[in-house]
Structures are given as C-alpha cells and as structure tokens.
Target: protein phosphatase methylesterase-1
Amino acid sequence: LSFAVSAGIIKEKARVVAMDLRGHGKSVTDNDFDLSVETMCNDVLAVIKELYGDSPPAIILVGHRLNAQKLQF
Model:
C-alpha cells in the first residue's frame, strides 16, 4: 500500500514528511541492526527536532504496518 494519494490530499493543508525507519527502505545509519522500539522512536524524535528545533507544532504521526505499532509508544 502507498500513502501517496492520502499524502497528496493532506499536503494541501499540512506539511507531510515521509521517512524510512532504520532497516527499512533506503535509510542508512551507523547501526542498521538496532531495530529496538526505543531506537526507532529516538530516530523519529531526531527528525522532528531537525525540522522544528525544540518547539515543534502539533504533529500527527502515521505509520504503516509494523511502523504503526511503533508509533503507539
């Protein structure tokens, strides 16, 4: 499944950021084998901080399949 259609609609009113978590897609990290929930959550937080600094706006996170489970944490 792809979020391309949904993202196209959403981006008309909000910023859409699509990222591959480590070990997925074309992502490359120093340690692609650390797939713990804590590490992946820290990766997402690092992207948010890079985009918005210490004052991010309200954010809605959407995940697909296994990544959706990680967003629950």
Q: What stands out?
A: Residues 37-52 form the longest helix (16 residues). The chain has one domain: 4-71. Residues 4-71 form one domain. The radius of gyration is 13 Å.
